[in-house]
Amino acid sequence: MDFFRVFITAPISLTVLFLLAKLMGNKQMSELNMFDYINGITIGSIAAELATGEFTDIYDGVMAMVIYSLIAIMLTFLSQKSLLLRRFITGKSIIIYDNGKFYNKNLSTAKIDINEILVMCRSKGYFNFDEIQTVILESNGQLSILPKDKNRPLTPDDMKITVLQSGVEAVVIQDGKVFERNLKATGNNIEWLKKELKKQNIKTSEVFIAFCDNNNTLKVHKKVKSNPTNDIFD
């Protein structure tokens, strides 16, 4: 194998793979359906072959990756327009258990046995089917479980309690660097930040990360130089 060629083609294949993954969207990094799984493996295999010299011409490999990616993008677009095509490509959800009944035919259709369902239920914290109303196998292979009303967690609505809606916390400082754009998005400025840090007797350079929530509260985590020596999980 020509080491110099690999030294050149490996970064190229990695760069092309990264750009194509960005083009296809975050779905490639989430729970994959069957089509996304097959397509991801194929493109990754082409990239690996391109890096290790299986292709006599580097452009052949890059073109193959681009074509596979364009097909994936086109089918994703078409599946958004057609329900039948979407069901064919991504599959559909299958009811495995409902109201005390297991649907054996659906288990057979999903090509999954009851023991796998039991394991997946236990991994979600359900050891007793008396607590479960419905079990659905989603198209990405994950299990969705609807608990019976008497077994679901108590909510503020159940207790007639009004709670304030929390929002996303904005990172305003990271590793001593102030993110002015994020700070501005919270409706604050540098003067406000300095004042809040002064209240907590902390310098900007001492901050590892700081958040501002929707209540306009600054939450600061200082840099810690020491590390715990004991292993609490051992």
Can you characterise this structure?
The model has no long low-confidence stretch (mean pLDDT 80). The strands form 2 sheets. The chain has a 4-stranded antiparallel beta sheet. Strands 6-5-7-8 form a 4-stranded antiparallel beta sheet. A hairpin with a 5-residue loop joins strand 7 and strand 8. Helix content is 45%, strand content 15%. 13% of the residues are buried. The radius of gyration is 26 Å and the shape is flat. The protein is an alpha+beta fold. The chain is built from 8 helices and 8 strands, in the order ααααββααββββααββ.
Features:
four-stranded antiparallel beta sheet; 45% helix; 234 residues; 8 helices; alpha+beta
Précis, in short:
With 234 residues, the chain is α+β, with helices and mostly antiparallel strands.
Shape: flat
Gap from first CA to last CA: 45 Å
- The radius of gyration computed from the alpha-carbon positions, rounded to a whole number of angstroms, is 26 Å
Total beta strands: 8
Coarse structural class: alpha+beta
Main beta-sheet annotation: 4 strands, antiparallel
Tally of helical segments: 8
Fraction of residues in helix: 40-55%
The largest beta-sheet arranges its strands as: 2-1-3-4
Strand fraction? 15-25%
Overall mean confidence score, pLDDT: 80
The SSE string, one letter per element, is HHHHEEHHEEEEHHEE
